[in-house]
Design brief:
Blueprint lengths: L2 H4 L9 H6 L4 H14 L3 E5 L3 H13 L4 E2 L5 E4 L13 E5 L11 E3 H12 L7 E9 L8 E7 L2 H10 L1 E2 L1 H7 L6 E6 L3 E2 L2 E2 L6 E5 L4 E5 L4 H4 L4 H14 L2 E3 L2 E6 L5 E7 L6 H5 L5 E4 L3 E6 L2 E6 L3 E5 L9 H7 L5 E4 L2 E3 L2 E3 L10 E4 L2 E4 L18 E5 L16 E9 L9 E3 L3 H9 L3 E3 L11 E3 L12 H11 L8 E5 L17 H12 L6 E3 L2 E3 L2 H12 L5 H8 L1 E2 H18 L5 H21 L2 E2 L1 H8 L1
Parallel strand pairs: 1-6, 3-21, 4-5, 4-12, 7-9, 9-13, 16-27, 27-31
Antiparallel strand pairs: 2-3, 6-7, 6-8, 10-11, 12-13, 14-18, 15-16, 15-17, 18-19, 19-27, 20-26, 21-26, 22-23, 24-25, 28-31, 29-30, 32-33, 34-35
């Protein structure tokens, strides 16, 4: 081990220095030595894969005050600062050399200037604190999908969260020996005041693509600090692009079909658009709810969950709508609640369908009903972006192939966002290219409380990945188009829309209708149902949906509801195409020509139907056209 690193040996906890030394990785040692000099921690703990090391992290989270115990065994609660409640997009920047330009979608700055600024903010930040050095593996261990990662943090809450969310990776580093290929993550909560980050006005989250490194400071919120989540996802997008596989912002789920058939889907939804609730549907199995790695193996498209847990939005989780999650969150097991209301050791959140207490502790401190912030806005008892962190194996519907090193074979891909006026509840693309270009690459969604800023604004978000893109957009689209070359049976691509409204602003689909949509998709993938061809894709036949609604939800599905839901809204579809074409023409210099061609062809089909049937075309009319 390098002599310079040995000079820090006296501040390492018992056994920690030896644990680091036994990995025999010069690149790792150089990285750690660099940041020990910058951070200047008072003590260092190296977390191996041993259970006692995990227990130490849990204990420190309580001792430090970053978490507090709740009434149910294994449950704890964490509060982030009042102004630290979501992913800070503006302060999340890529550090790029001067000659590298990816386009206006990328919030970037000069690499050296960014490193200088970040290292200045991190200088001596851990004096009087303990540094945790944590080893993880992204994807199942011992797999072609595996990516090892090392996290440096002074937050026991971050360390505890990552222990729940990611596979232990100390053994993976031992297996790889002197490998220089691993992700590097550095975080400090900065100066704490009342247990939360004080200097959030100096919050910074920087991604150094050149060194496979993520750095963040003056923040505790998981989306800004849990480096292995969306921050490492940016590193993986670059890595996968260079190596010929895909990193996607996708759930993975198994949908049960007739007999013993189980069909696996991936699905991309922007935050708070139904992604976790889809992955957790009653009667189906969950492999993952957030990030997937996709590879071609033996002529098949296979995927793994990067994580082994869920950092989920807790709003509207209740026993009626989410029985499986509700059961897990209200019984003894390891769970971290964040930014909810705590009253007498019990957590409460928005939409839990319980009687709300009039006071308690929440993300604003001591709370009473009617409490207002400095701007006179009433403070809700639980934050709209409040979260829960739990291991997938704690859930009754966890898929048995979660840890399969070869992943699961994907037969369908789903794209969905918040769309109040354009897309039908479910439709299938004509083929892979049509799906990537007209569903994935055109994805839009209305903003929510999951990110800082104004809610309710329609945002372009191709494949739900725009915020995390680490390569030029055109290249990313081409990667997706070319990825299926050599795949014998290409997955079908679908779009879903759980948020379609009528002219009066009333939702046209119910909370549980998605259970029907996924069953129809499973039948389509396996060629078990017929369909109607529209200018934008294939939609269900009424009689098939009527049967599914009765069998799955036990209710009658009326033809008038079908007509409202699946009427083709041509003006809105044309307006969307024009919006998307403008975005790509103005902002994406390397847009593939085929995208413009495909959207123009779809526009032409819509206009032809409009000229024959008018602006709003009922599905039964289209059925006659396609018959």
């Amino acid at each position: 081990m390098q002599k310079r690193l040995s000079s820090f040996k006296k501040i390492f906890k018992t056994g920690s220095f030896e644990a680091l030394e036994s990995l025999k990785n010069p690149e790792l040692n150089a990285f750690i030595e660099t940041y020990l000099n910058i951070l200047q921690p008072s003590s260092v703990f190296v977390r191996t894969d041993a259970n006692e090391d995990i227990d130490y992290i849990r204990k420190r989270a309580i001792e430090s005050g970053e978490e507090r115990r709740l009434n149910i065994e294994g449950h704890t609660c964490h509060f982030d600062g009042y102004h630290d409640q979501g992913r800070d997009k503006d302060s999340t920047r890529y550090l790029l050399p001067k000659n590298v330009v990816f386009g206006p979608h990328l919030n970037a700055m000069d690499r050296q200037a960014g490193l200088n600024e970040m290292h200045g903010l991190l200088k001596d930040v851990m004096q009087g604190k303990e540094l945790y050095i944590l080893f993880f593996c992204l994807g199942p261990t011992g797999s072609v999908f595996s990516i090892p990662a090392v996290q440096l943090t002074d937050s026991s809450y971050v360390a505890h969260s990552e222990d729940i969310l990611y596979r232990r990776g100390y053994g993976e580093f031992k297996r790889l020996g002197k490998s220089e290929t691993f992700f590097k993550l550095v975080h400090s909560a900065g100066v704490l005041e009342n247990g939360v980050s004080k200097d959030t006005d100096r919050r910074r989250i920087y991604i150094d693509l050149q060194d496979n490194k993520v750095m963040s400071v003056n923040t505790q919120y998981g989306g800004n600090t849990i480096g292995l989540k969306k921050l490492s996802m940016r590193l993986a997008i670059q890595k996968s692009s260079n190596e010929g596989w895909l990193t996607e912002h996708m759930l993975i789920m198994g949908v049960h079909g007739p007999g013993e058939r189980l069909t696996y889907f991936t699905g991309a939804f922007p935050s708070a658009c139904g992604k976790t609730s889809t992955a957790m549907l009653k009667g189906e199995t969950i492999v993952g709810d957030d990030i997937a790695y996709l590879r071609k193996i033996d002529g098949k498209l296979r995927a793994v969950n990067v994580e082994k847990g869920i950092f989920g939005i807790i709003r509207d989780v209740n026993p009626e709508d989410d029985p499986l999650i509700w059961e897990a969150l209200t019984s003894p097991r390891e769970v971290i609640f964040s930014n909810v209301l705590i009253k007498d050791g019990t957590p409460y959140w928005l939409g839990d369908k319980r009687e709300m207490p009039n006071d308690g502790m929440n993300y604003s401190g001591a709370w009473r009903k009617g409490k207002k912030d400095s701007e006179g806005k009433e403070i809700t008892h639980s934050h709209p972006n409040a979260r829960y962190t739990i291991g997938l194996k704690e859930l009754a519907n966890c898929d048995e192939k979660l840890e399969d090193p070869n992943g699961v074979e994907i037969k369908g891909v789903i794209y969905g966002g918040r769309d109040s006026d354009t897309s039908v509840p479910v439709q299938q693309a004509f083929d892979w290219d049509h799906g990537i270009l007209t569903m994935g690459s055109t994805l839009e969604s209305e903003t929510t409380a999951a990110t800082l800023g104004k809610a309710g604004v329609r945002k372009f978000n191709l494949m739900s990945n725009l915020d995390f893109m680490a390569i030029p957009l055109g290249k990313y689209i081409r990667n997706n188009l070319e990825f299926v070359k050599g795949v014998r049976n290409r997955p079908a691509i679908f779009s879903v829309n759980y948020f379609l409204k009528d002219k009066e602003g009333k939702y046209l689909t119910g909370m549980h209708d998605k259970r029907v949509w996924v069953k129809w998709m499973e039948l389509m993938v396996n060629d078990d149902v017929e369909y109607i061809k529209t200018p934008t894709g294939y939609i269900p036949i009424y009689n098939d949906l009527r049967t599914l609604f009765k069998d799955i939800l036990g209710r009658d599905y009326m033809e008038e509801d079908y007509i409202k839901q699946f009427t083709l809204r041509i003006p809105e579809n044309l307006a969307k195409i024009d919006r998307i074409l403008k975005i790509y023409a103005n902002d994406v210099a390397d847009t593939p020509k085929v995208l413009f061609e495909t959207l123009e062809e779809q526009k032409k089909r819509l206009i032809e139907v409009k000229e024959k049937y008018g602006d709003y075309v009922e599905p039964l009319v289209l059925e006659k056209v396609s018959s």
